């Protein structure tokens, strides 16, 4: 087996099931397609996400993962198909309106307010209608922002201008900003990019903790560092050349011949 597809059993035990009964579908994606010229970046993809799910989306470079995120967050509209959030069609909706409905995302390319302190970047996100509405009456905006920074391990940098902060820390700042909008569905686009192994381990535990703190929040993660992702999520969906080619538990995906062939670049040769 490709060692990148292995998963850590112990850490995944921290990931708990949503309460019994059938969970509500918060995100329904049906037969969406998006083309750029003659290239189908996303090709007839369907899936649904239940309330409280922690899901990974993987695939080689060019598989369509980020395009899919751009469709889910309404930065792009599909050529065909439907995307529903809690039963409401969101295709064609402005991205900021989708945020206020309850879908937030991070980006691979970070773009903070570089001249503002780290904590002020989070406070800007707390000014969103949804974020401001949910600030606890006993907490000031500064306190709420500080708590979010503590959750992602940036407390010591909260007064530092964002322009002085390293790339890995800016990725964690992206997550804090997204969390400030109090999302029901959180889309994390390569959150471990630029992080060293210790930072990856810390952020993995932070994501698990934020999931346990808000068990109804669904989290969808696109990630290339499979060793980290596979010990974090309970379900994985695999894209290749725009198509969904597999879905299942980390164990099932790690042992799926088609998935391994995609990552190894050709058929598996048996002795």
List keywords for this structure.
single chain; 271 residues; alpha/beta; 4-stranded antiparallel sheet; 23% strand
Layout of SSEs?
Layout: H1 9-12, E1 25-36, E2 39-50, E3 54-58, H2 65-72, E4 80-85, E5 88-89, H3 95-101, E6 103-105, H4 118-126, H5 129-133, H6 141-151, H7 167-179, E7 185-189, H8 197-213, E8 218-222, H9 226-229, E9 235-240, E10 243-248, H10 250-254, H11 257-264
Parallel strand pairs: 3-8, 3-9, 6-7, 7-8
Antiparallel strand pairs: 1-2, 1-4, 4-5, 9-10
Helix pairs in contact: 4-6, 4-7, 6-7
* Order of strands across the main sheet: 6-7-8-3-9-10
**Overall shape:** globular
What value does the average pLDDT take? Answer: 87
The residue fraction in helices comes out at 25-40%
Task: Outline the structure in words.
With 271 residues, this protein is α/β, with parallel strands linked by helices. It contains 11 helices and 10 strands. Helix 4 packs parallel to helix 7 and helix 6 crosses helix 7 (167-179). The radius of gyration is 18 Å and the shape is globular. Mean pLDDT is 87; it is low at 6-20 and 267-271.
Gist?
With 271 residues, the protein is α/β, with parallel strands linked by helices. Helix content is 34%, strand content 23%.
């Amino acid at each position: 087996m490709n060692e990148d597809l292995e998963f850590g059993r112990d850490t995944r035990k921290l990931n708990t099931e949503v309460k019994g009964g059938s969970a509500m579908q918060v995100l329904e994606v049906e037969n969406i397609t998006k083309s750029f010229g003659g290239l189908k970046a996303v090709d007839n993809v369907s899936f649904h996400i239940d309330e409280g799910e922690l899901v990974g989306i993987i695939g080689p470079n060019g598989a369509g993962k980020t395009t899919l995120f751009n469709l889910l967050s309404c930065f792009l509209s599909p050529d065909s198909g439907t995307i529903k959030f809690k039963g409401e069609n969101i295709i064609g909706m402005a991205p900021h309106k989708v945020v206020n409905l309850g879908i937030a995302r991070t980006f691979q390319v970070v773009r903070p307010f570089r001249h503002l302190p780290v904590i002020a970047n989070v406070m800007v996100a707390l000014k969103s209608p949804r974020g401001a509405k949910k600030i606890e009456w006993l907490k000031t905006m500064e306190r709420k922002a500080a708590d979010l920074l503590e959750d992602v391990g940036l407390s010591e940098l909260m007064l530092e201008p964002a322009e002085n902060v390293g790339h890995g820390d800016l990725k964690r700042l992206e997550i804090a900003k997204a969390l400030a909008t109090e999302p029901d569905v959180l889309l994390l686009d390569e959150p471990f990019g630029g992080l060293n192994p210790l930072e990856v381990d810390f952020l993995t535990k932070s994501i698990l903790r934020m999931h346990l703190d808000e068990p109804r929040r669904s989290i969808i993660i696109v990630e290339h560092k499979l060793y980290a992702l596979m010990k974090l999520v309970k379900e994985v969906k695999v894209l290749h050349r725009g198509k969904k080619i597999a879905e299942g538990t980390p164990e099932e995906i790690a042992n799926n011949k088609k998935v391994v062939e995609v990552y190894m670049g050709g058929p598996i040769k048996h002795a």
